[in-house]
């Protein structure tokens, strides 16, 4: 086997490298990290997520310089930033637009992972870190949403925090502890500010680093779902791999350029996005005595908010029936073996009983949280013989298309005021969402898969 050639830095870089593994990090994660040569545009979104994270941190630092976490001054400090601070309006709009664009990029990044099976062995931990990042982003966005202290910020926080009161036995005490008071007040604003500015970003940065390290340890997936580490040359370099730098750093610059064009077009010409990025009610100071006609979260929360609203007392009967059916199915399934053949059916029966014992509001909170957490179990729910959607049965593509359309419908309904028709649609869509995952161990096995090539398929540009 050929001896590994290591280039040693000289001069100032050499002085640093002898005291800190700078060049080692550069080689391991960029210049000698071999990525599959058939990446497509879907692989831009990981780099774009990192770009937006940096953008949010930098703009957040400048906003904190002038923001006052005080219930009497918070709204007016934001107005001061917008009107008096040089380029303050630009920093504020970049931060608010960045929050929404962060979720756009992350949703597309997760969708790519689902389509190409990037959560499958050996990348289970990479995916779990990714889901944890998504949960942190949701917490970060929620805590930050209160800070402008506008009407929708105030009442949105009031509604969401009140949901915790539905938790049996400890709910009331828990909601008071989260608020720091019996209502959303100055104490709530201060603790939300500390979580948004310090606590959650520290956890988020740690998870991002862990996500990247875990990814580079096992290697990147690709549109074919072929492991490039299985085919190497005499020097131990993957035959279908190319160094991430300079090839994909240049490749990603195209995605960055396109993203920044769209991003700044929104910032300069349409920062509110018709009320989806910044609601009209949030340009009014918070008034505890005046409730907005319709309280709804920001668009990136609305799919899960729809599922929360869909969980009515009548709907829990449907969920209880589903739990019983699944319990019976597991009891007679040949795939369930050992102690799990008894444990899982008993758990599902207990859930079915609990659905009738505890309040529907509590189960709405469970459904809203569970529909996010269930994403972390995808590596074990998906039993298909192949990873990538390219080689799965054609009707699998229809299943994923239904899932995506269903998710968008839930998001749209979440922005609307509730009515019987929309409630029925959201309940149907919630069932589709749940069944997509709970039935995945069955439907993912069905159908004939196409043969997967031994090496990646790659067609270089002419």
Automatic annotation (TrEMBL):
InterPro entries cross-referenced by the UniProt entry: Cyt_b/b6_C (IPR005798), Cyt_b/b6_C_sf (IPR036150), Cyt_b/b6_N (IPR005797), Cytb/b6-like_sf (IPR027387), Cytochrome_b (IPR030689), Cytochrome_b_N_euk/bac (IPR048259), Di-haem_cyt_TM (IPR016174)
Annotated heme b b566 binding sites: 109, 211
Pfam families per UniProt: Cytochrom_B_C, Cytochrome_B
Keyword Electron transport attributed: yes
Keywords: Electron transport, Heme, Iron, Membrane, Metal-binding, Respiratory chain, Transmembrane, Transmembrane helix, Transport
Membrane topology listed for this record: Multi-pass membrane protein
Cofactor comment: Binds 2 heme groups non-covalently.
UniProt: heme b b562 binding residues: 95, 196
Family the entry assigns: Belongs to the cytochrome b family.
PANTHER family for this protein: CYTOCHROME B
Official protein name in the record: Cytochrome b
Organism: Basilea psittacipulmonis DSM 24701
